[in-house]
Every structure is written in structure tokens, then in C-alpha cells.
Amino acid sequence: MTIDTILPVLTSKDFSSDQEIRWCPGCGDYSILAQMKKVLPTLGVPPEKTVFISGIGCSSRFPYYVNTYGIHSIHGRAPGVATGLKASRPDISVWVITGDGDALSIGGNHLMHAIRRNIDLNIILFNNRIYGLTKGQYSPTSLLGQVTKSTPMGVIDNPLHPLSVAIGCEATFVARSVDVNIKHLTMVLKRAAEHRGTSFVEVYQNCNVFNDGAFDYATDRDTKAETLLELEHGKPLIFGKNRDKGIRLNGMHPEIVPLDGSIKEDDLLFHDERTTEPTLAYLLARMRYPDFPEPIGVFRAVDAPRYEELLNNQIADARRQRGPGDLQKLFNSGETWTVE
Description:
The protein is an alpha/beta fold. It has a domain at 9-230 and 296-309: Rossmann fold (3-Layer(aba) Sandwich). It has eleven helices and eleven strands. The strands form two sheets. It has an eight-stranded mixed beta sheet with strand order 2-1-3-4-6-5-11-7, with helices on both faces.
């Protein structure tokens, strides 16, 4: 090995742009950006081989703040743009940065098809349950009864739950974290980047201007041990400040049980992120505060064929069978006609 073949050691500074970061003071986006810059140097992918693609929203300013290639695309279309890029350049590491409004409202169709194709993208959805950029209207994830500028008498739409949508599309990697849970968020982002296929990560992100405190139950030091359940592959579902509560199945329904000696750890539900059957992951995604502690961590991580690989294999097969092709000949072949 010559000195020319030794890759330089990358740091977070290599992924920091010279642009002024312009989010509201105290916004959860700052933490997500900081953890992303910690993770990127550990992946062995240089900035020039990394692309961030966003749509429209507060989170969509993200590409300006990382020193990589970036595309600030149009509302909801980031997954489609990312699909085209990854299909044509499978060697590039592609990240999609989106919000609950951008991804699940106008972008719902694009998100769904990117996930079902299992193209090798990392989709990071910032969920603050509000439209922040347009100043506080309700979003697809806003809770029933939530009072916003566009719902002065309370939201009457049943909210979408991002992980349920992703698992319903059979995403091969599904995870959730919280903006201020620094160590956990870093772990989840790294796991997502290392997965081959579509990685879908929901991050609970506080909008301290238009929906402040939406996730207090998940961030308050005095309550989060009781309201969050950290998933670990192969381990039972246990939570609580004293780790004295667990989740077991009663038929097909989860229930909270005390670990008081009458119930053993072996009686609990064990987490298996690698099962190809998505039912368990979907069940976990349905566990929501205040009825249950909300799971965070990796819900599902399985292997499946990837769209860009299958597509490029078909192109290679077609070239072997039919030659490189001629565009002019293609235009003038098949069913053509002349308009007099």
C-alpha cells in the first residue's frame, strides 16, 4: 500500500459548511445536525461522495449546513429526486432530509414508493407535529384536538404515524430517536447509514416556537424512564426508572406487567429486529404514550433486494443482449406515423 492509497482521517469539520445556520434559537434541528456531523466522519465516505437532498420546510435547510453535495428540491419530492440520483449513481451515499409535513402530506406518495422499492437511501424524518416554516398550521402528525393557527377549535383529522406508514410499506430498516437524546440518536443514524436498502428514521424534534413541549414526556429526566422503552435486539421489553415493568403479549395485544416476582423476564415479549415478518415491528409502532411507553431504537433491520441494483442489472442484461443501443433508431422504430 502506498501513501496515496491511505484515506485521510475525516472529522466533523470536514462535513461543516461555511453557511450561517439559520434556525430558531433552541430548535431541535441543531442537535440533529450536530449528531449527523459526528456520524458522517465514521462512515468512511468522503464529502464528495455524499449527497443530502431535501424538500421544503425548516428541516430542508439541512443541505446548506453540511459540506457535501446537496439538492434543495421542491415540496415533498425529495424521495423521487433521491431515487433518480441513487439509480444513476449507486456509488453515492444519499440522505433524504424531510419533515412530517413535507414527507407525509404532499410528499406521501413519493415517500411510500421510495420505501417499497427499497432503494439504498437514508430517509430522516424530523417530526415536530406542526408546520413550522409556514408559522404553525397543523400537520399530518398533529394530534387529535391539537389547537393550531389553522385548527382554532382543535384538529379533527386522525394523525398519521410515520413508523406505521413505513412498516406498512415494508421498510427494511425502521428506527426512532429523540433530538436531545444525543448518544441514542448518534447510534441510530450510524445504524441507518450502515444498512443497505431504505433506512427510515423518525426523530422526535421539538419546535420551541409553534409546538413547544410536544415531546416533553420523552425528554424530561423525571419522566422519560417511564414513558420511553429502549429497544435492544434479542432482549425483553423492560422499562421504568427501576426497570420494574415489562411488556408481554396477551393474545395479540401488548400489556404492561409488573416485574414483581410473579412474572419473569422470560414471560415478556422479546425484541427481534431481524424477523422478516413485519407484524411485531408494527405492533411496537402502535404502542403510544400515554397508554404505553413509546419504543425508541431500531424496530426492524432486514435484508431485501435493492431497487438500484436490480435496475442496473436489467440495464446491463439489455446491453449484453441487444448492444449499446441507438437513440435515433429508437425514436424511429416501433409504431410511428406521419401527420400530413
